[in-house]
């Protein structure tokens, strides 16, 4: 196109009435471009803030599950009470192969060298990381008071991510809490109901014979009330998911080797 031709096009465009098809499309495209530029710049600019908030939320959840959360507290400061350690799941021992302060659990779970595909996968997670960051809470004498273990698994609509806090004997549950899920408000999302969460406090994982007995069900199992958390009313499928994921993570493929070592005082 020659210079005179393109000048002619611009002149014709400018001379066209404001409601002409050309001008309407031009304005619509320009508005879309400007709006998408604003949205993407905001997303990029706010990413560091989102990361900080995500970390704060995770720390708050760990404080909550350990019973140390107080509204208005400085979360980062209070979180210093915990000692993060990277645990090798199969051996149940901590490893210094990674720096616990920077170990990326999510990346490890997707890294072929640091994870394994699950054949037996009751929690519906597909792959399992070989290493997990766990958080220790020590007593004044320096012994272990509680361990906070990350857990996750499929409910009805979503993967639920959370923590379980276990006492120093490796068997008594102090608390359970999910910090991310997509279950239905009023049904599966009742996993966040403080009354339901409170039911976990004091429950036991294994019986005297060492068999894993903790169960989320509609009625009490033969093992007894110590091992029983009532299923959520109207949300049996989410409850089954929670039962599966808790039993998976507390079992041999999960933290059982670590919990046994903790019980034996070897940690
Ligand atoms: C829109 C909708 C959302 C639902 N969300 C959940 C849910 O988040 N978790 C769940 O277990 N069941 C949910 N249900 C119910 C299940 O389909 C199923 O009926 C229920 O888990 C059976 O539990 P019940 O035997 O305690 O009634 C939902 C149902 C509908 C129609």
Automatic annotation (TrEMBL):
<keyword id="KW-0739">Sodium transport</keyword>
<dbReference type="GO" id="GO:0005886">
    <property type="term" value="C:plasma membrane"/>
</dbReference>
<feature type="domain" description="FMN-binding">
    <location>
        <begin position="155"/>
        <end position="253"/>
    </location>
</feature>
<keyword id="KW-0997">Cell inner membrane</keyword>
<dbReference type="InterPro" id="IPR010204">
    <property type="entry name" value="NqrC"/>
</dbReference>
<dbReference type="GO" id="GO:0010181">
    <property type="term" value="F:FMN binding"/>
</dbReference>
<keyword id="KW-0288">FMN</keyword>
<keyword id="KW-1278">Translocase</keyword>
<feature type="transmembrane region" description="Helical">
    <location>
        <begin position="25"/>
        <end position="46"/>
    </location>
</feature>
<keyword id="KW-0472">Membrane</keyword>
<keyword id="KW-0597">Phosphoprotein</keyword>
<dbReference type="Pfam" id="PF04205">
    <property type="entry name" value="FMN_bind"/>
</dbReference>
<comment type="similarity">
    <text>Belongs to the NqrC family.</text>
</comment>
<dbReference type="GO" id="GO:0016655">
    <property type="term" value="F:oxidoreductase activity, acting on NAD(P)H, quinone or similar compound as acceptor"/>
</dbReference>
<keyword id="KW-0830">Ubiquinone</keyword>
<keyword id="KW-1133">Transmembrane helix</keyword>
<dbReference type="GO" id="GO:0006814">
    <property type="term" value="P:sodium ion transport"/>
</dbReference>
<dbReference type="InterPro" id="IPR007329">
    <property type="entry name" value="FMN-bd"/>
</dbReference>
<protein>
    <recommendedName>
        <fullName>Na(+)-translocating NADH-quinone reductase subunit C</fullName>
        <ecNumber>7.2.1.1</ecNumber>
    </recommendedName>
</protein>
<comment type="function">
    <text>NQR complex catalyzes the reduction of ubiquinone-1 to ubiquinol by two successive reactions, coupled with the transport of Na(+) ions from the cytoplasm to the periplasm. NqrA to NqrE are probably involved in the second step, the conversion of ubisemiquinone to ubiquinol.</text>
</comment>
<keyword id="KW-0812">Transmembrane</keyword>
<keyword id="KW-0285">Flavoprotein</keyword>
<keyword id="KW-0915">Sodium</keyword>
<keyword id="KW-1003">Cell membrane</keyword>
<feature type="modified residue" description="FMN phosphoryl threonine">
    <location>
        <position position="236"/>
    </location>
</feature>
<comment type="subunit">
    <text>Composed of six subunits; NqrA, NqrB, NqrC, NqrD, NqrE and NqrF.</text>
</comment>
<keyword id="KW-0406">Ion transport</keyword>
<keyword id="KW-0520">NAD</keyword>
<keyword id="KW-0813">Transport</keyword>
């Amino acid at each position: 196109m020659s210079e005179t031709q393109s000048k002619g096009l611009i002149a014709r465009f400018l001379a066209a009435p404001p409601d002409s098809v050309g001008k309407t499309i031009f304005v619509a495209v320009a508005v879309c471009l400007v709006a998408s530029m604003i949205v993407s710049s905001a997303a990029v600019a706010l990413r560091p803030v989102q990361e900080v908030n995500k970390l704060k939320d995770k720390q708050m959840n760990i404080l909550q599950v350990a019973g140390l959360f107080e509204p208005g507290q400085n979360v980062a400061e209070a979180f210093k009470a915990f000692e993060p350690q990277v645990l090798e799941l199969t051996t149940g021992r901590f490893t210094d192969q990674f720096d616990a302060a920077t170990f990326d659990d999510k990346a490890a779970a997707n890294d072929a060298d640091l994870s394994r595909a699950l054949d037996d996968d009751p929690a519906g997670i597909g792959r399992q990381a070989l290493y997990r960051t766990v958080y220790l809470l020590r007593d004044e004498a320096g012994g272990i008071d509680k361990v906070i273990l990350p857990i996750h698994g499929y409910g009805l609509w979503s993967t639920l991510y959370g923590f379980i806090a276990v006492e120093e004997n490796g068997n008594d549950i102090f608390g359970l809490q999910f910090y991310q899920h997509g279950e239905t408000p009023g049904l599966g999302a009742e996993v966040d109901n403080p009354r339901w969460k409170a039911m976990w406090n004091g429950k036991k994982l294994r019986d005297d014979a060492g068999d894993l007995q903790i169960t989320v069900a509609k009625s009490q199992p033969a093992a007894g009330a110590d091992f029983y958390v009532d299923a959520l009313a109207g949300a049996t499928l989410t409850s089954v998911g929670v039962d599966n994921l808790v039993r998976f993570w507390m079992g041999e493929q999960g933290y059982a080797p670590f919990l046994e070592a903790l019980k034996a005082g070897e940690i």
